[in-house]
Structure formats: structure tokens, C-alpha cells
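__Record contents__

***
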Amino acid sequence: MPKVAAGFLIFRRFTGIIEFLLLQTSYGEHHWTPPKGHTKRRETDLQAAYRETEEEAGFTESDFKIFENEKYVLNYEVKGKPKVVYYWLAELTDENAHVKLSDEHQDFKWLSLKEACELCKYEDMIELLNKCQRVITEKYSKEENVSKI
């Protein structure tokens, strides 16, 4: 049975430029990733995504909007064991919301697609970032296409 994690691939576009949020882990290889974490017993994947985003980045549900139909799945192995991660695309809507890191992370950056892809070392995350950039520009350039869960 694979470990299951969930999170949000959060972006902002307050200045007209799409920027993705990546957090740098304070453990292991110090890789860069969107906020995510393991689901707890009796918790849905979406509940875990909200909880982990608040724990790791300090954002609450009122700080961002979820793109309901943009749920993505990454499958990979960690230390030889299968892991499944569910990500929903989300847009930070509160310009006054600031990242508040947990002790699980040592840094954060808001990055353009190119910069985010340069920091991510995993090909599946690079592919996901590229796909999300296309989705944002092609499908969600207007406010009415975004909805709150």
C-alpha cells in the first residue's frame, strides 16, 4: 500500500506574472516542493491538503482559491516504497497573506515557471509545473472560472 500525501500547487499573479510557491525542505536533500504532506487517518486528501498548507506555509482556506477540476497525481518511490501525491491547483488571492514556514522547511520562493523548473530536480514535478502554467493561461485567465471549495 503506497503512502498518500496531498497538497496545493499554489500560484499568484498580482503583478500580472504567474509565480509558483516552492518550499525548501529542512531535511534530506533540501529539495524544493509545493506544500504537501501525508494524509491522516479518517482525513480526505483535500482535508490533508488544506491542513498541510496551513502547517507548512501558514495559508488558510480564505487566502486562496482552488481550481476544482485541476487535480493531479504524482506516483514515485521514496526509499524504495511507493508514494502517491495529490495536488490541486490553487491561486493565492489575498495579497496580504504571507508565507509562515514550519520547521519542516528552511526557505520559500515565489518563482516564474522557468525559475521553478530550474529549482525542481524531479522530472514529474517539472512536467506538472509546465502543465499548470498552460492550464492557468489557457483555461483560467478569467476570475469566473475559479471557484472555492
Remarks:
- The chain is about 25% helix and 40% strand.
- The longest helix spans residues 123-139.
